[in-house]
Amino acid sequence: MPETKQKGSGSSRGGLGSALVYFAKEPIPGRVKTRLCPPLSEAEAAGLYRGFLQDILRPMPPHRSLVYAWSDAGLEELSALLPAGMELRRQRGAGLWERMLNCQKELLAEGHEHVLIRNTDSPDLPLELTAEAFRQCGPGRIVLGPDTGGGYYLIAVSASHPELFTACQEGGSEVYRRTLENAAALGLEVIELEEQPDVDRYADLIALWTRRSS
User: Fold this and answer.
1) Which of 119, 110, 92 is nearest to 21 (CA)?
2) Nearest to 179 by CA among 63, 92, 77, 96
3) How far apart are CA 211 and CA 81, in angstroms?
4) Looking at residue 11, what is its pLDDT?
């Protein structure tokens, strides 16, 4: 069992159902949102991402809610941002896809029926889409939420599929299309949610500000 830090008592280990996982990095200057620099400074980009985490990280009962951190660096700072009822674990693996697969395998092996991994780059993602993903997930089926950059903000599975991430370039604009192709080759049904924006580049940030000020 991997080491887990838990805030409060809102998360139960008994009667495991579904797991909601936030993949997050520690808000350290120079390590997060670097594609926003310039015009933002590294400190400003880290502060922005810290704000994203404060907006996004929320438990979602009755689902078990966890944050999987990218590294040990700044782990205590990330732990301080967690609301009560959330757990913190360390990601394992060389790259994003290996880390996602290891997370899915780990939580499914613990007895969770479904595992949903979502990003921390979409601060205005409607909660209803996460709830819909849990409702739609099932055997022989995955749920994907496409983002506007060619990737996805959410993936929900009820079994691990290593081949699902084959030939997916991390951060590439063809990730979503390639994942759909891999799912078809595996004979998996894909439930596609509404496309949603994320914040990777400065233009995305301007668009976020525009949405929030309208």
Assistant:
1) 119
2) 96
3) 25
4) 38
Q: Please compute, for residue 188, the number of CA atoms within 13 A of its CA located in the half-sphere on the CB side.
A: 27
H or E segment to which residue 89 belongs: strand 86-90
Q: Which three-class secondary structure state does DSSP give residue 126?
A: coil
Domain extent, residue 174, equals 5-213
Helix (H, G, I), strand (E, B) or coil at 75: helix
Q: How confident is the model at residue 8 (pLDDT cuts 50, 70, 90)?
A: low
What does pTM read for this prediction?
0.91
Closest CA to 154 of 179, 173, 174, 172: 179
Parallel/antiparallel/unpaired status of strands 189-192 and 141-146: parallel
* pLDDT 10s digits, 118-139: 999 999 999 999 999 999 999 9
Whether 167 has a pLDDT exceeding 60, the answer reads yes
Which CATH number fits the domain that encloses residue 79? Answer: 3.90.550.10
d(CA 25, CA 31): 8
Distances in Å between the Cα of 41 and the Cα atoms of 47, 85, 89, 112, 121 are: 10, 33, 29, 41, 18
Residues 110 and 18 sit within 8 Å (Cβ to Cβ): no
pLDDT band at 3 (very low <50, low <70, confident <90, very high): low
Q: Please tell me the distance from the alpha carbon of residue 121 to that of residue 45, in angstroms, as a whole number.
A: 12
Number of domains in the chain: 1
> With contact defined as beta carbons under 8 Å apart, do 175 and 119 qualify?
no
